[in-house]
Amino acid sequence: MREIAITDNESFTYKTTGTEKLDVFDWLTSTPRSANFPDIVEIRFKNTRKSFFKNVNGLNLKRGDIVAVEASPGHDIGIVSLVGELVIEQIKKMGVDKNIDFKKVYRKAKPVDVEKWKQALDLETPIMLKAREIALSLNLNMKIGDVEFQGDKTKAIFYYIADERVDFRELIKVLADEFRIRVEMRQIGARQEAGRIGGISSCGRELCCSTWITNFVSVSTNAARYQELSLNPQKLAGQCGKLKCCLNYELDSYLDCQRKFPPTNIPLQTEDGPAYHQKTDVFKGIMWYAFGHENFTNFTPVPVERIHEIIKINKSGRKVAKLIDFEDEVFVPIEAKGFDYENAVGTESITRFDRDGAKKKKHQKQKNNPRDNRPQQNDRPEKREQQERPQQNEPVERRQNNDRNDRPQSNQRNDKPQTNEGGNKPVNNQHGERPEHHQQSGKPHVHHRPNHPQRRNNPNQNNKENNHQE
């Protein structure tokens, strides 16, 4: 959102979509104005259309103001994109004559002008689609790519692309009768259309034709050959369908570096046979050679100085033993120095937290619950079974007493009060005490419950019994 001052301290909110096309950074905006401040301003219209106007009324204009300017016929609405000393530099860059009569800036736009301008902008897309249908019905070999309305809604510019000359006189009559406006047809190229529409290139930046390129230079496939690029049309073509303009950016640097390179069509004669050129690394000064025209595997990198030396030897009628010694600098690896990070590839695992967590949980469980600890070596089931096994010479009565003392004293069978033989008086047997008649008789009490040797031989059960007795 941008607030633009109009008149009488009023304000109008204007929505911009993305970055302005062909934008210029005004680095003199904070400097005070001098007495020789130029009265020429740069006005931006839809997409990449810009023009220069003269501020004849001495208005205090700044970047972003919406103004009404002279048009033919009527008036147009635009946005001030540049003021001050940089306008003179832009005029020189565009090659515009400073002595011509520039069109005038009438005033800052009023709310009525802005409202009519917004209505005209809303009509552009529907009229463009309708104009395409009309051109198709007239069998015209052309593509209408964009429509730009004038600010007063009296005129529209139709931008079209055509491979050959098109007679659109009938089309102009139909469009004028259909939309009741003045029609102007303007032919553009594929690169200009891509600049007007805009977009993101394969490098991740905005298109150069919509940000800073104003004059387009022809690009040929030789630019890709000089830079040792693969002649793949899908990679070399831009959104306009033509070769990318950026192929010309570094072409001069490659041509300067390749002046010291030998011709690629001269084979190098060696004792192993002739070696033919395969590819070139311009900035490293290395050329790759292979023995045979169809050998695409064993490439040998040779410095440019060595190639000149071999060519000189071959001209004298001699052959070299090898293209290059293996102790040459080409094969010396470059050691990376000054890295402030470590290579952590392969040190991380998806299940690294699961394994550590399982061990940690198991360790905490054993530490917090001593009953779940595993038996020590002294508590092995075999040794415990040997210790608990009764000796053969021990009397039967003594073995029965030991079995009775080793049996766990459970409280589950004492939930109900026990009675004596008469069934009148309950017996307090919660702590494993014998009845009174057994205590008075002095005879050892023998339980008639059958023994369970498996229960005694279970090490887990023995641990529980020991814990219970403790």
Extract low-pLDDT stretches.
Answer: 1-18, 331-336, 410-443, 452-457, 462-470
**Distance, first to last CA:** 81 Å
Number of strands: 16
Q: Strand order of the main beta sheet, please?
A: 3-4-7-5-6
**Proportion of residues in β-strands:** 15-25%
Number of helices: 15
Q: How would you characterize the largest beta sheet?
A: 5 strands, mixed, barrel
Write down the overall geometry.
elongated
Helix content: 25-40%
Radius of gyration: 49 Å
Write a concise synopsis of the structure shown.
It is built from 15 helices and 16 strands. With 470 residues, the protein is an alpha+beta fold.
List the helices and strands and how they pair.
Blueprint: E1 2-5, E2 11-14, E3 40-44, E4 50-54, E5 66-70, E6 75-82, H1 85-94, E7 103-108, H2 111-122, H3 124-137, E8 143-149, E9 155-161, H4 169-179, E10 182-187, H5 190-197, H6 222-226, H7 233-236, H8 251-257, E11 268-270, E12 273-281, E13 286-291, E14 300-303, H9 304-315, H10 352-368, H11 381-388, H12 396-406, E15 418-419, E16 426-427, H13 436-441, H14 453-457, H15 459-469
Parallel strand pairs: 4-7, 9-10
Antiparallel strand pairs: 1-2, 3-4, 3-6, 5-6, 5-7, 8-9, 11-12, 12-13, 13-14, 15-16
Helix pairs in contact: 3-4
